[in-house]
Amino acid sequence: MNFDLTPEQDQLRDAVRALGRRYGHSYFVEKAKSGEHTTELWSEAGRLGYLGVNIPTEYGGGGGGITELALVCEELAAAGCPLLLLVVSPAIAATVINKHGTDEQRKRHLPGLADGTQKIVFAITEPEAGSNFHRLGTVARRDGDDWLLSGRKCYISGVDEAQYVLVVARTEDEASGKLKPALFIVPTDAPGLTRSKLDMEILSPENQFLLYLDDVRLPADALVGESLDAGLPALFAGLNPERITVAAMGAGTGRYAIERASEYTATRKVWGGRSIGSHQGVAHPLAHAAVQVELARLMIHKAATLYDAGRDLEAGISGNMAKYAAGEAAALAVDTAVQALGGAGMTTEYGVATLLGAVRAGRIAPVSREMILNFVAQHVLGQDKSY
Ligand SMILES: Cc1cc2nc3c(=O)[nH]c(=O)nc-3n(C[C@H](O)[C@H](O)[C@H](O)COP(=O)(O)OP(=O)(O)OC[C@H]3O[C@@H](n4cnc5c(N)ncnc54)[C@H](O)[C@@H]3O)c2cc1C
């Protein structure tokens, strides 16, 4: 068992931490409040190679794995910049295309994903299907060599700042009712693809959208992989990286909140000479949250290590557990930090209540805590599926 990072991973962590701190949470909040994106941070992270750490070197990436990408996600979040698009573009899209795309698709997309000049977001959720992906209603039909896509997607993050969206559809002639997914790389400006922004109670520079696909015509090579058989493995390929990196983002956010609160409670004095942090009623909840965040980090490390070792099934269990643990820990840490800061906790200036919406959403997306508990009950505890 090894809990140490390699020297290269250590260097990466330090370098990303320094970059994140140079921008900081106030930058993230200003961008969110002005309706802008974190373009400068994204571009700089791309130029420095941090967005492509998990992409093979032959496509301009760092040749590392999800362990490295999780470090990037965690450190930027720990600096107050939890970038959700790290989870969709380099974690999901780059993994899917690298593992299951054609040579041509790899050449077309991976270099841009690696240096951050290309963003590919991910669209699976639908209004009617919700958590039940077996009910996906977005349909792909053949029209000569082309494909025609029709359907609706919801809560899709970052469509306004991406060049492409990786759309999960199903093939029309699927009579058995079983999910036979197919993934398509769809330009966000494709005729027939329209979007409307959802008003979300999350302070974030990254937005969610409803997507309408109305006979979107795509060339044959928009289908990920050589044939329709690539669909299911391609879809599953994105799940573990998604779970692990979103967990890392949650753990980083938890660390950020606890650090802000600890700095404050160590120096704030309202009862004579003692800091409020000397009162166990203030310190213990923070210490408890710190334990939960650290436990989540341990599981993230395990899941990423298993994933990078090619042990996908075990990584699936650990990745889901890590996502659950980190989602809960992040929400606890931010809420506890707000409480410890008192009135200051609710101000924009102290930068913790600004994360309440994001960490609350982290218990719902990209997979809800209940669906993870279902997964664990079924696959770890051997319980019958109830739904
Ligand atoms: C901020 C944000 C960003 C997102 N970004 C993306 C994105 O980029 N791309 C994308 O495709 N999607 C995205 N989503 C969608 C997200 O993945 C879904 O919201 C999530 O999977 C839950 O689906 P739902 O909202 O339809 O909830 P529903 O499926 O309607 O579920 C509602 C509630 O019921 C519970 N529930 C449902 N079924 C069961 C069951 N069998 N057992 C126990 N409980 C159950 C759920 O856990 C949930 O609490 C995003 C969502 C948010 C909030």
Fold and architecture overview:
- The strands form two sheets. Strands 1, 2, 3, 4, 5, 6 and 7 form a seven-stranded mixed β-sheet that branches. This protein has a two-stranded antiparallel ribbon with strand order 8-9.
- It has 387 residues and is an alpha+beta fold.
- It is 49% helix and 15% strand.
- A hairpin with a 2-residue loop joins strand 8 and strand 9.
- The structure holds flavin-adenine dinucleotide.
- The site of flavin-adenine dinucleotide has 23 residues, from strand 1, strand 3 and helix 10.
Which key phrases capture this entry?
7-stranded mixed beta sheet, binds flavin-adenine dinucleotide, two-stranded antiparallel sheet, 49% helix, alpha+beta, 387 residues, globular
Compose a concise summary of this entry.
The chain is of the alpha+beta class and 387 residues long. The chain has helices spanning 7-33, 39-47, 66-78, 85-100, 103-115, 231-267, 280-308, 312-341, 356-361, 369-379; strands at 120-123, 139-143, 146-157, 164-171, 181-187, 193-197, 208-218, 269-271, 274-275.
Radius of gyration: 21 Å
Spatial gap, N to C terminus? 38 Å
Overall residue-averaged pLDDT value: 96
Overall outline = globular
Low-confidence stretches: none
Bound molecules: flavin-adenine dinucleotide
What characterizes the major β-sheet?
A: 7 strands, mixed
Order of helices and strands: HHHHHEEEEEEEHEEHHHH
Helix content: 40-55%
Number of helices: 10
- Backbone structural class: alpha+beta
Work out the strand percent: 5-15%
The tally of strands reads 9
